[in-house]
Amino acid sequence: MTAAAAEHAREALGWEHLGVPDLRGRTVVVTGGSDGIGREVALHLARWGARLVLPVRDRVKGERVRARLLRESAAPGSDAVTLVDLDLADLTSVRRAAEEVAGLLGEERADLVNVAGAVSRRRRESVDGHELLLAVNALGPMLLVESLLPLVHQRVVLVTSHAHTSGRVDLEDPHLRRTRWTLPRAYSRAKLVAMQWGLDLGGRMPPGTQVQLVHPGWVLTNLQNATGDPRLDRLVTAASRPFAMSAPQGAAAVLFALTQPLPPGSYIGPDGWQHLRGRPTLIARSERAADRDAAARTVAWMWREVGLDGDGPRNRGPAPV
Description:
Elements: H1 3-13, E1 27-31, H2 36-47, E2 51-56, H3 59-72, E3 81-85, H4 91-105, E4 110-114, H5 132-148, E5 152-159, H6 183-202, E6 210-214, H7 230-240, H8 247-259, E7 267-270, E8 280-282, H9 292-306
Helix pairs in contact: 2-3, 2-8, 4-5, 5-6, 5-9, 6-9
């Protein structure tokens, strides 16, 4: 990376006080890398020399992003960016993607960054019959990461949301089949489940590795386009634009969590009002997201739901800082 490019990266991320990481020789698996925050994360990682594996749902969009990444990558060769097909709403696809990623890595190790997520204007179910937001924002990522856990190099970074603070987990009706479905209720529940999984995972990481949780803030991405009405989507985007951060600014917290010295199991988010905007820093999670007993129950249920060990994971370590 040239000095000018490095300076541009620092300015785009608000990182004037931090050095630009040298990621040459490292491999990073990034979900959601074909759009929004994930694309910006992938762009910076490529410029910093990382080899990328991008599990994507939309292959056409993924190929366009791959071409750009190869043009801007500091890593040599056409294998600097590899695409893998992945649909987080289909557990068969998740298992297939995990196997393909493991095959690509071989004897290598990689960092894992899950950025992919979803919103919906109405209740929908995944291929496996799970409430869609819970499937894409929690269950699918959990199966992918847990399947690849033995291959982690240094870090797992999970993009969640501060919306988890209003979430409630009901394991008697986790998919909102009896409870009235609303977007805020379903989204906050899915993000709380993801936070509890991240808390539990922090105590089970392989030696020398760690998990980091990230709230990127209020970011202008295609997630604003969830109403199903193009005109209303444009209005929501226009109303959000003066207040929301750009995708590069939202990527800053994810990149910070991946590359900077941090206590294991940290929760990173913007330092501004209500953690909507600002520079990445350590922030506080909700009491429910810090309850290790509740997290253990949730994760045991998650494992059963996706067809892993029926009793859930073992060897939970001490609570993260």
